[in-house]
Amino acid sequence: MSITARQKLALYEAVFEEIPDVIVLKDAKGDFLLCNRTMADLYHTTPDAMVGKHDSDFGVPADLAASFRHNVLGIMARGEGEVVFEDSRDALTGEIRHFKSIKRPFKDAHGNNQILVIAHDITDVVRAQQQVAQSEQRLRDVMTATREGIWDWHLPTGRLVHNQQWFSILGFSEGDVDSHIDAFAGFLHPDDKPQVWGQLQRLLDGHNEFYSSEHRMICKDGGSIWVLDRGRIAERDAQGKPVRMVGAYTDISERKQHEVELERLLELAQAGTRAKSEFLATMSHELRTPLNGILGMAQLLLLPQLSPQELQDYARTILTSGQSLLGLLDNILDLSKVEAGKLQLAPTAFNPAQLLMQTVAVFKPLAQSKHLTLRVDTGTLEQSYCCGDATRLRQMLTNYVGNAIKFTSQGEVLVQVAQINDDSGQRWLEYSVQDSGIGIAADKQALLFKPFSQADSSTTREFGGTGLGLSIVAKLAEFMGGSRGLQSQLGKGSRFWFRVPMQPAPAPLHPEQVTPPIGSAAPADLLSGRVLVAEDNPINRMVIKALLIKLGLQVEFADNGHIAFERVRQATPFDVILMDVQMPIMDGQQATRSIRQWERDSGAKRTPIIALTASAFDDDRRRCVEAGMDDFLTKPITLARLSSALSRWLKGGR
């Protein structure tokens, strides 16, 4: 059935009114000749009301209306249609809407210029594009701001895209690197390539859900950094084959450095633990050896019918073993003092050559027993005097000489002292000990001056020792502002030396009193007086009683500080008090404070109080003085030291 002209017209009119696009017919001035309902709705009016009006009549801003008019005139002048993108603002709501307009000029039946405009509202499309653009910009901002290097790998083409941070981490600019997987491979550290490709392949083969690898990357400057590289498959094709991977890596170089440092510290801690374990094993041996002599000889002394010579030999062995044990404990305490920074030097005038001779004299019997030649060289210092801590210097030299004799089975040991002048004019006092002993391998020499260390554990098993002596020498030399060192060749011997600043001193009035020989002690003088001994240990009481009676003194005992305080208050005044520091009920320091307070309150005469303690630290001495004690004796107590201390406080010596 054919459509009549009227029907066609009705159809066109229906399309014209209902179509969602804007349809407008304007004259040469830009005024509306005709528009559909869609156009009228935009201006909140009716199609009839728009005829003969201009855009500005409906609230369109003047500048925007002028641009519409200018565009119409231009198209008419050119006589060609065009497609333009335009914006329109709602007069009521102010909303901006976007249009894609097709504008075409033509003439009516009378030859008047007109223009037909068909505009499609693309506001939703534009807004969607803007949102996409904003999202992309935000993503770019995040990728730029993040500290991680982000990558996107298109597997079929090998194209590998990175963010700016990826390049910055490696020191490159974006244009420096080709965007291909082969270029990435060139930045992998050669040693780490198998690991990286292996992890990637496991992901691509479906064995792993994610890719993760810690490896090194080569930087622009040729160095390398550690990165944590992670990724996953972002896209697959219709067959499920990976097409695209995305990931990021983080610079973990700082963390790796911390891990390396932690591993180093762990190794040091483990080495220290091993050294201490070896030290404890060695210490057990070194403690048990003199204890064996003490306990063994003590058992022999209990046997009946011993000859005077046997009694003397056994007693001498007990004394020697006890002195060895005391020397070991002194070494440990000295090391603790130096490491804690609590060692105090006692400078006095001394003769360096005399100190050497006296030290060597102690070792002559031992050297002779091993058939070693023990030589000395005092150079030009026989008449020179220096100011320094002679006791500590002797201790250092003793350690050197003792080691030299211990580790030398044949040949000689040479002990020397000399003045050394350096280029700056500084004078140094240098003691050295050279031997023809076993020598020390070059790779072991650095260990010798560390606490608890010897060249190797077999040395300890064969020759004994704790490894403390040389460490003490090193600490003391440093403490005195000097240095120490050695030269050695395995199997041919060693030369150990230490050097301290040389401070000349005038010769004393009584040279024989300088650097008294080790072990020298004047015969104990007989004293007189009453002594109160506060001591809770029965064995210590027995020893002290025997020593005091030997010195000609009257002795009374108190088992603790409280009893000692009561004895002082109630008994005839004592001439001196020997006060143990650690006792039950009331310790020695508290007892001393109580006695001093009582003396002040009662007006009694002040009684000298001498501390007896097993502790040899300066802090303990200070606390005793603060409590009111007058003198200080460390256990074990010898007859000579006890006599010397009592002589200072008793006036009845004879």
TrEMBL record:
InterPro entries cross-referenced by the UniProt entry: CheY-like_superfamily (IPR011006), HATPase_C_sf (IPR036890), HATPase_dom (IPR003594), His_kinase_dom (IPR005467), HisK_dim/P_dom (IPR003661), HisK_dim/P_sf (IPR036097), PAC (IPR001610), PAS (IPR000014)
EC number: 2.7.13.3
Catalyzed reactions per annotation: ATP + protein L-histidine = ADP + protein N-phospho-L-histidine
Residue ranges occupied by any PAS domain in the UniProt entry: 135-207
UniProt GO molecular function: phosphorelay sensor kinase activity
Residues modified to 4-aspartylphosphate: D580
Domain Response regulatory: 530-650
Keywords associated with the record: Kinase, Phosphoprotein, Signal, Transferase, Two-component regulatory system, Virulence
Keyword Signal appears in the UniProt entry: yes
Role according to the record: Member of the two-component regulatory system BvgS/BvgA. Phosphorylates BvgA via a four-step phosphorelay in response to environmental signals.
Protein name: Virulence sensor protein BvgS
Organism: Rhodoferax antarcticus ANT.BR
